Amino acid sequence: MKYGIVKKGAAFLYETRRAAEAARRGQGAEEGGVSDEVFCGWSVRVLEEDEHIALVRTFYGYEGYMDRSALVRCRRRELRRFYACEGAALCVVTSVQADVQAIPRVQGRILLSVPRGSLLSVCGEEREGYLPVRLPDGQEGVVAAPRVREYPALEALYFPKKKEENRNAVRGAGGEWTERAAEQCDTQGQDGERTEEDAEQCTAQGRQVAALRRSIVAEAKKYLGTQYRWGGKSPEGIDCSGLAFMSYFMNGILIYRDADLVEGYPVHEIPREKLKQGDLIFFPGHVAVSLGGEKFIHSTGHQGELGVVYGSLKEGDPGYRPDLRDKVMKCGSFF
Q1: Confidence at 168, pLDDT banded by 50, 70, 90
Q2: Threshold 0.85, pTM exceeds
Q3: N or C: which end of the chain has fewer CB within 10 A?
């Protein structure tokens, strides 16, 4: 099986080989055919390829055509090595952009500039505010420590055999959390009554769930003011499902890339009246991150907004969208 890791700061996936080839030559059509965006350190499985273009499937199950030169080709064991499976660590870029430099000085030569969401392999201890990292092409450099944080080496990054294995323990604010945690809050003692120990466990798990919900919303808010870009997922431009995806990805959770609920991914349908912050609201061809109640944050192509803004389904609220009020198709939750 053929694999690859993105070695450029960012690269687009295209709906057709023709669109990818046209973009490579700088001859794209007026409608560019972009379907997705991938970042440095993200893995793909190569399904087909020729001299210039590769058809790939990302580690979160999305397919598209991309410029082959954006990839470092590798075997599965090399994927495992890069993604911290041999004692090293993995970090994710949290700032809008981060420079990987040759030496730990502000004057250091820039090896590569990478956007938020890029993954870097840590290859040493932090010193003087810089963290030694390894790029997918094998270059080693340093990145300013405040611009990254540790990221869980999700098994999906190196392609587990079973889809359900993508749903590992995830990193939320305050610790690790699994989908079972919320269910365990309903645990009762052997006599059918909730014990004191059960109540304490539920309270702790409830705090973790609440913290993770807040963290998802906090990640979405980091993109406020970002322009709308079809297929984009970066601070340079992002679309509606890209915003939802990145809000979860930055918390170690992989959801479906498009504006829909799909079996095999961890978001499930919930009644609208049970919406809480961090849940998702689905409209025809559109998705928003709930802030609780009728309020949300989304990346919209709506005339006059064209970017990441606050919105509401309640008349009188700032950002009220009467065109969306009666078009809620379903609501989804990871929790």
Answers
A1: very low
A2: yes
A3: N
